[in-house]
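To assess whether ligand presence alters the predicted conformation, the chain was also submitted together with adenosine-5'-diphosphate. Input:
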Amino acid sequence: MSRTIAIFNQKGGVGKTTTNVNLSAGLGKLGKKVLVIDIDPQGNSSSGLGINKNHLEYSIYDVLINDLDSHKAIIKTDFDNLHILPATVELAGAEIELTSKNQREVKLKKKIEEVKEDYDYIFIDCPPSLGLLSINALAASDSVLIPIQCEYYALEGVSQLMNTIQLVKRGLNPNLEIEGVVLSMFDGRNNLSIQVVDEAKKYFRGKVYTTLIPRNVRLAEAPSYGLPIMEYDLKSRGAEAYLDLAQEFIDYTEEGE
Ligand code: ADP
Ligand code: MG
């Protein structure tokens, strides 16, 4: 059974893309077949996985707007079991172009159906907004993975995020679940980080992953080499954390299957 997961938080800079790239690569390393769909016009997941956006024949834009067969735009990455449907800056216009289309909220869902059975997991890296691209991601997904940064105001915006999920559940996707909450940029020497972990555990009862992603400079460096953290520095604390998260993710989602 294939599972589609939107990595979503309308706040920018909370670790969505870092989690998308490294959790996907970690799952690939553990033998799962994974597709990453980049629907952020910034295309950071695409470049972070070594895709040169200047040399692409097709991207998610063609799939969403021109109804291109998804298979044609998917690229095999250099990493184990990991494919990507990349995004380029062209996608910025898609938000407006989609507005005039029929069934504009479920375009992505329809296109994912073409390839869903080829993968164990499909991750969608969302833009930092509540616009039509994010709505498409939520409508297309079985669940939502929420990264939260262990910083001031960490839970600010979370009720808006939960409202959006509720709205999508009501109107478009009644089965949408919360997959889990990833706490990122954790610093154990900092009381504030520890406080955020407590607050998040209270708010998201039972949904917060035990694995905490530490603040680790290697995680911030890896994307400029187009490499997931396990390829860039397997011995780093960041690599260790994302591999642990991948294992915890598998244990949790495959429990009882
Ligand atoms: P988002 O996709 O939510 O906007 P990113 O994953 O792009 O967030 O992260 C924002 C910035 O923080 C990026 O420069 C990224 O490299 C850096 N970053 C993310 N997670 C960590 C971490 N655990 N440790 C250090 N830097 C991180
Ligand atoms: Mg991002």
